[in-house]
């Protein structure tokens, strides 16, 4: 989770702030770089899938022309041949650098060591394991569960093209689900966070040295959290599909636990950010409400169990739980667009959800996109707020997932007078992936360890501090500030980490204090795993 050690101010300038070349002088207030007007340099013309057009009025023809131009400009790309399988391997390896608990003998990120081995001891439970969500040392249950759901979905839809990396992807899911089973072991209770975020963010120290408060936070009948419980149920249900043929008994355990956790979430409704506001806000405060997580959980239970009760639940609660709201959002806080796509291909029961899914696709198309969805001059999807790459990877994942549904059903998406084919959706998603891997104005990869140029100073405690092997002595809380502020590159490469990414002008500060741009998260990588798997076989 984005964080600065207390009493350390964000610098107003950075000697490592990369700006795209520009001939246009105006600046955005929050950027030290000018807006770009000409940023592509060497350009190749990609062939575009034809967009079917009905008879248009002059105004419609103008709009169509604008739409065509926007799509055409977006898909212009730097001529690069990417090794998607190498990027896939690294994107999965990243999760091993985020592990908490006792590391296994086959741990591949060697600069990490065991950490947080007493988690849960204050409440008499073993809550070791799981993942640190980002560059800090907290285990936040809400984004961890979403990460697990998206990793599982990546395997369900795209595992067949992962090759030898499939086994590592499955291990990444199991590291998460083993922990989710621990936090849901008590009926009517979900342990949703381990670690006091304010205490943690006051220090810059390795997880192996961690001596900050490891407070355990839970939801129960008197302190509901339908949002985090609904997402946890979704994660367990999705993972049960992953293990259905690989480990049937483990799969059954996951599904049965998902059923129980969902029943708890639905029976005791409420937002965890209300019950635990002081602990989870402003870090992972659910500002979007818990209703979408209930539908999301039911959608995954329907997919995993094939039980009619969940189909009836979705249909019955479609209006009550606001299924059609904010369809252009998808991430750890908002599942609306994802709900629609999970339900595709399920006969005609969910026709309204198909309409919502079509509306979501139209909201992303350049030239007619929703006001909340922008494209940078270099062609990157941009949404206001921090850690923009989370939107890039999750929305692109849905583009590819929906394109597969459309291909199988021989359909296209109607967007008023326009129509978007499955091939166009895949091209738009590929453009985003290629941008991440280096086809951008700065000619740099935003994945650590991929390509010749990538972020060197990511906002990540374990990566930026000397490893235990290199520096066996403890590095105490405030002693780490020296490493936080140094302009030197991080000593430990967190291979596969994808950072928050550039701002709306395509400028990027390779600097730890700029956490919104330089911090990696698990929920950036989780959908990217699926995307890279797909494009490794379809490029």
From TrEMBL:
It catalyses: Endohydrolysis of (1->4)-beta-D-glucosidic linkages in cellulose, lichenin and cereal beta-D-glucans. The keyword Hydrolase applies. One of its GO terms (biological process) is cellulose catabolic process. GO terms for molecular function: cellulase activity. It holds the Pfam family Glyco_hydro_9. The keyword Hydrolase applies. Its EC number is 3.2.1.4. Keywords: Carbohydrate metabolism, Cellulose degradation, Glycosidase, Hydrolase, Polysaccharide degradation. The active site is at residues 459, 510, 519. InterPro entries: 6-hairpin_glycosidase_sf, 6hp_glycosidase-like_sf, Glyco_hydro_9, Glyco_hydro_9_Asp/Glu_AS, Glyco_hydro_9_His_AS. Coiled coil: none annotated. Residues 84-532 form the Glycoside hydrolase family domain. Belongs to the glycosyl hydrolase 9 (cellulase E) family. This is Endoglucanase. It comes from Linum tenue.
């Amino acid at each position: 989770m984005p964080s600065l050690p207390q009493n350390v101010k964000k610098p107003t300038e950075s000697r490592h702030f990369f700006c795209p070349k520009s001939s246009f002088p105006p600046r955005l207030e929050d950027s030290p770089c000018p807006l770009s007007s000409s940023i592509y340099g060497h350009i190749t013309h990609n062939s575009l899938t034809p967009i079917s057009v009905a008879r248009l009025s002059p105004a419609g023809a103008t709009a169509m022309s604008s739409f065509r131009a926007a799509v055409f400009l977006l898909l212009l790309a730097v001529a690069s041949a990417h090794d998607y399988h190498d990027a896939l391997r690294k994107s999965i390896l990243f999760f091993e650098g985020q592990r908490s608990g006792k590391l296994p003998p086959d741990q591949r990120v060697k600069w990490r060591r065991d950490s947080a081995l007493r988690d849960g001891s204050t409440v008499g439970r073993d809550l070791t394991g799981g993942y640190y969500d980002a560059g800090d040392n907290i285990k936040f249950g809400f984004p961890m569960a979403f990460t697990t759901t998206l990793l599982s979905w990546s395997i369900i839809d795209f595992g067949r093209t992962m090759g030898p990396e499939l086994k590592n992807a499955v291990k990444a899911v199991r590291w998460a689900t083993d922990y989710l089973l621990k936090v849901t072991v008590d009926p009517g209770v979900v342990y949703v966070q381990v670690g006091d975020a304010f205490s943690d963010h006051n220090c810059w120290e390795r997880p192996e040295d961690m001596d900050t408060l490891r407070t355990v936070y839970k939801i129960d009948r008197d302190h509901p959290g339908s949002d985090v419980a609904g997402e946890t149920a979704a994660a367990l249900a999705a993972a049960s599909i992953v293990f259905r043929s690989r480990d049937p008994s483990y799969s059954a355990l996951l599904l049965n636990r998902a059923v129980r956790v969902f029943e708890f979430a639905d029976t005791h409704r409420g937002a965890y950010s209300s019950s635990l506001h002081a602990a989870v806000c402003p870090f992972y405060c659910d500002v979007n409400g818990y209703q979408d997580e209930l539908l999301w959980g039911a959608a995954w239970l329907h997919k995993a169990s094939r039980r009619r009760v969940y189909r009836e639940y979705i249909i019955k609660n479609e209006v009550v739980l606001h299924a059609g709201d904010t369809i252009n959002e998808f991430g750890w806080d908002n599942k609306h667009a994802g709900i629609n796509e999970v339900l595709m291909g399920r006969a005609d029961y969910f026709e309204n959800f198909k309409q919502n899914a079509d509306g979501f696709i139209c909201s992303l198309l350049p030239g007619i996109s929703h006001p909340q969805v922008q494209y940078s001059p270099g062609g990157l999807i941009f949404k206001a707020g921090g850690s923009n790459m989370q939107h890039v990877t999750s929305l692109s994942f849905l583009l590819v997932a929906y394109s597969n549904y459309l291909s199988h059903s021989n359909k296209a998406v109607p967007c008023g007078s326009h129509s978007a084919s499955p091939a166009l959706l895949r091209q738009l998603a590929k453009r985003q992936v290629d941008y991440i891997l280096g086809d951008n104005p700065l000619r740099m990869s935003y994945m650590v360890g991929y390509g010749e140029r990538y972020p060197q100073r990511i906002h990540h405690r374990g990566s930026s501090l000397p490893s235990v092997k290199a520096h066996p002595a403890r590095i105490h809380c405030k002693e780490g500030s020296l490493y936080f502020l140094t302009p030197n590159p991080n000593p430990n490469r967190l291979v596969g980490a994808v950072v928050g990414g550039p701002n709306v002008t395509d400028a990027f500060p390779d600097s730890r204090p700029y956490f919104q741009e330089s911090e990696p998260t698990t929920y950036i990588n989780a959908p990217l795993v699926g995307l890279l798997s797909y494009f490794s076989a379809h490029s």
